[in-house]
Amino acid sequence: MSSFWSWFIIIIVLGNVIGYSIFLYVLRKNPQKKGSAEPKTTGHVFDGIEELNNPLPRWWLWLFWITIVFTIIYLALYPGLGNFKGILNWTSDQRYQQEATAAEQHYGELYADYYQQSVAALAENPEALKTGQRLFVHNCASCHGVDGRGGKGFPNLTDSNWQWGNAPEEIETTILNGRRGMMPAFIAAIGGEEGADQVVAYVRSLNGHAVDAELAALGKTKFTAICSACHGADAKGNKLLGAPNLTNNQWVHGGSEEAIKNILRNGLQGVMPAHKDLLGEEKVRLLAAYVYHLSQSEGSQPMNE
Ligand code: HEC
Ligand code: HEC
Fold first, then answer.
1. 260 CB near ligand 1 (under 6 Å)
2. 179 in ligand 2 pocket by Cβ < 6 Å?
3. The model's pTM
């Protein structure tokens, strides 16, 4: 803070303290003589009710004096008056630094220890999983949910639907480097809204929905010509491209006719941010173990090749 602003603050704060003190000193006297018959009024009248000019009660006045004394003691001990640091020399930075260094030391050793082990081994270690869960809640829950079940546009990490694979190394790579799903809008290539209806019918038929067979047959031709390039001829996906399996009735973006049509109209660009620089490889290892554990916990199967 420049010394101008420092003095600016000091003058305002001290000015207030002194001003209020004078104000209270003046108010301490009862403006009304004891025993006078007529109470003084301010002259204000509302609906026939007069506003009296009585002094504040003593105890109330004392409360104000106490806050002023507190202010003075506080400002002497702690930072508050411009650049003056206070007699105790307390700073929030210092306090934070002390705590951060202590935590860094404690957890640093712990993380380094865990980093010696594989993702799969850590996924069997309840203590490591607890730490992994904490890291997950702080760093991942905003997108994937506290329980990892995701939401529309954010993959559920507890089901058997994996775009990029759920082998331990695949999960670790996803978290370290991030992933970028790219599906262009295909509505024009498949013949506009009409073509989209056909392709949607075919995709829905793969997921056990009753659909118009003729429509689905037309859709299948288009799927084979265009979609299979990424999603595979059997529509079971390709984890090298992050193209999801379209036959397991588990959807990141919703499986309704309208939801799928919207994807054909607008395409998709899902981004999973890279966490290597953000968290470091040691923490990512623990996160990978936690996510791997999540993916195993409900009988999730590795994705088809
Ligand atoms: C260039 C490769 C590519 C092609 C071609 C492609 N897709 Fe995709 N598709 C993807 C990728 C990658 C994703 C995941 C996008 C993301 O995560 O943001 C995806 C996602 C989807 C989804 C969302 C699945 C979910 O879980 O919500 C649907 C539905 C879909 N594609 C259908 C199709 C259909 C139908 C076609 C053919 C018209 C098609 N895709 C063609 C790459 C492709
Ligand atoms: C800003 C939102 C966001 C945050 C934060 C985030 N993710 Fe993601 N994550 C996504 C999106 C979106 C995708 C889907 C990417 C795609 O479309 O291919 C994804 C994909 C994934 C996948 C791949 C899922 C699959 O089906 O293959 C994993 C694993 C994952 N995230 C784990 C994590 C972990 C662990 C963290 C915390 C360190 C995290 N994510 C933080 C948005 C996020």
1. yes
2. yes
3. 0.74
